[in-house]
């Protein structure tokens, strides 16, 4: 049974990498469904050249990407004990 969870390591790695793509897809999803959110805020700030809002959205997005990758790196050794953290 323990061997069955080893297939999760590449899945966890891809989820960590794909968080950036999820953040970029937010703009399209919010535009299609008319939901207010960070993507719509970023788009309006870009159109109005509102630099502080653009910087804030970029910072929050970058932080989400870094945290997603960090979480993926922390979970990988827990799923597969052959991976060592230093």
TrEMBL record:
Regions crossing the membrane: 7-33, 53-76
ABC transmembrane type-1 domain mapped to chain residues: 8-84
Keyword list, A-Z: Cell membrane, Membrane, Transmembrane, Transmembrane helix, Transport
Location within or outside the cell: Cell membrane
The species this protein was found in: Halteria grandinella
Primary location group: membrane
Protein's name according to its UniProt entry: ABC transmembrane type-1 domain-containing protein
Mode of membrane association: Multi-pass membrane protein
Gene Ontology annotations for the cellular component aspect, listed alphabetically: plasma membrane
Keyword Kinase in record: no
Superkingdom per UniProt: Eukaryota
BP-aspect Gene Ontology terms: transmembrane transport
């Amino acid at each position: 049974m323990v061997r069955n969870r080893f297939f999760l390591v590449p899945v966890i790695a891809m989820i960590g990498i794909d968080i950036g793509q999820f953040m970029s897809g937010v703009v399209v999803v919010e535009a299609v469904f008319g939901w207010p959110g960070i993507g719509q805020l970023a788009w309006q700030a870009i159109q109005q050249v509102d630099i502080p809002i653009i910087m804030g959205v970029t910072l929050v997005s970058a932080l989400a990407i870094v945290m997603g990758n960090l979480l993926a790196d922390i979970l990988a050794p827990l799923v597969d004990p052959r991976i060592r953290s230093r």
